[in-house]
């Protein structure tokens, strides 16, 4: 099903050309910005009027406060305005607010039926922000359809007494990711960003689904693949090192491979160095603003995070840089300013020239 004979999209060529010239900038943390708006349950549900772009209504008996992805339907302007802020701060690539917009993740909120609308509206809103930014400063922005790991893992048992048990199968994930990616492409995403990967098997299902979606539309979009390292030994939750992770996803010929979230830029550096040493494609890093404090907030200032990300650039490790949890438009502005002085990492060889 992974078919490289499909023509690549126009945005793919444009992104590859831009990434050869300079370090591209990815945006920051949507969740962090949404938190500052202090929205209530009524805000999250638009007083119960949840509907999609086609005016299809959705109903759930579950509380929705904290279901950030739902805001693309109920508070679309707020989400779009945050994306515009990130774009004007220097982001070339804007993420859709769809990290949890799969039937698997939305089951927690009883909104499985809304996933198509969430992804279409999520991509449309990010596209509007991209166009508004371009109208202001003339720079092209790209919309990255954000695909999260879901809250289930295909290769680890959640039950310590039953190590063979799996809460989700490869095919469950493939189908759920396929629905999501179809919606993201329909809404106008330029690329697919499979991020915060803690289980490579989940990511492989997302990759497989992306190629199934590409076959439906007859063109291949760039894929960005980003793992997360959650422990000090430098392994992902499913036990892989950065080198093993690269060899597990290399068959997808991704536009970028990289790391995001987790322990912050300082702790990410050795793992990023390892990944950049083996990957024969562009490399992307978007760390958190340090480690969370006792209240779950992030204390690194824009200048602190940007100084650490600049080290990645200085050492020739990155082609795309941005921020994950705790990073605001000020963090992205500082990162963009600091990495602009450095050339992008040199490719070993282009996986998809
Ligand atoms: Zn994060």
From TrEMBL:
Enzyme Commission numbers on file: 2.1.1.13
Pfam family, one: S-methyl_trans
Record protein name field: Methionine synthase
Record family assignment: Belongs to the vitamin-B12 dependent methionine synthase family.
UniProt organism field: Salipiger profundus
UniProt-annotated binding residues for Zn(2+): 261, 324-325
Pathway: Amino-acid biosynthesis; L-methionine biosynthesis via de novo pathway; L-methionine from L-homocysteine (MetH route): step 1/1
Hcy-binding domain: residues covered: 12-339
InterPro entries: HCY_dom, HCY_dom_sf, Met_Synthase/Corrinoid
Enzyme class, first EC level, given as a word: transferase
Keywords: Amino-acid biosynthesis, Cobalamin, Cobalt, Metal-binding, Methionine biosynthesis, Methyltransferase, S-adenosyl-L-methionine, Transferase, Zinc
GO molecular function (one): cobalamin binding
